[in-house]
Design brief:
The termini are far apart. About 35% of the residues lie in helices and about 10% in strands. It has one domain: 3-Layer(aba) Sandwich (Rossmann fold). It has a 5-stranded parallel beta sheet with strand order 3-2-1-4-5, sandwiched between helices. It is an alpha/beta fold. The chain has 8 helices and 5 strands, in the order βαβαβαβααβααα. It is globular and about 55 Å long.
Length: about 240
């Protein structure tokens, strides 16, 4: 069982990716970030998921990106609601957190070096996504090149780094279908950018819109908790 580091947010994508990695025999060490995000409820979701799947280790790393702000997730800025799906990939939304994936992957890279792991999993998606620049295949390829220039295992060739993105080219519908084929219980996940204190999803932010679209296209109901039933939340 080769060791791997996996970014686990507790949402739809990262939970599906975790099930995929375990199904393929990886010994997963999961990493979650408490970075001052508005939707901090995702941390508890990540804990539920990590416990359910019995990952080797699950660490929650504390950093505070509110120091810089610049995003609706880390500053006092309203989260956009009810945006049309076809507008989400036409620009970079205010929910983009500056350099977030670069920061996260750097922590994962450090842990991978300690573990002697070559594989780092991140649940980025370049099809049904919100226009984030650090979710594109060009970014992932560039980061992987950098990682192999910056690590002992990469330079010596003993543990070359691979940034694994099994969901990169999948639609949200395909991600839902993949997860269901792997037996994922999506009721324990949380994707919303602006949930209630009780962890109920708003049903109107970009993350909810894309998630609900994926479940609808897959012909199944989203079992996550919403403030309103999902069909009503989209009205």
């Amino acid at each position: 069982m080769p060791p791997a580091v996996l970014l686990l947010s507790g949402g739809l994508d990262s939970t599906t990716m975790l099930a995929w990695a375990l199904d393929r025999g990886f010994d997963v060490h999961a990493m979650t970030f408490r970075y001052g995000q508005r939707h901090a409820g995702e941390i508890e979701a990540a804990r539920r998921v990590a416990t359910r799947y019995g990952v080797r280790d699950h660490v929650v790393v504390d950093i505070d990106l509110r120091t810089f702000g610049g995003s609706a997730l880390t500053a006092d800025i309203d989260v956009p609601k009810d945006r049309a799906a076809d507008t989400m990939s036409s620009g970079i939304p205010i929910t983009y957190v500056p350099a977030r994936n670069t920061i996260f992957l750097s922590f994962c890279l450090a842990w991978a070096e300690v573990l002697g792991a070559s594989d780092i999993f991140i649940g980025v998606n370049a099809v049904d996504y919100s226009g984030y620049p650090d979710c594109r295949p060009e970014y992932i390829a560039a980061y992987e090149r950098m990682a192999n220039l910056a690590t002992r295992g990469g330079v010596e060739g003993t543990a070359p780094i691979r940034i694994r993105t099994p969901l990169l080219d999948l639609t949200k519908r395909q991600i839902v279908e993949l997860g269901r084929s792997l037996g994922v219980d999506y009721s324990m996940t949380m994707s919303c950018y602006d949930p209630t204190d009780a962890g109920e999803a708003c049903g109107h932010c970009d993350a909810c819109t894309l998630r609900l679209k994926g479940f609808a296209e897959a012909g199944v109901s989203d079992p996550a908790a919403y403030i309103q039933p999902p069909n009503e939340a989209r009205r």
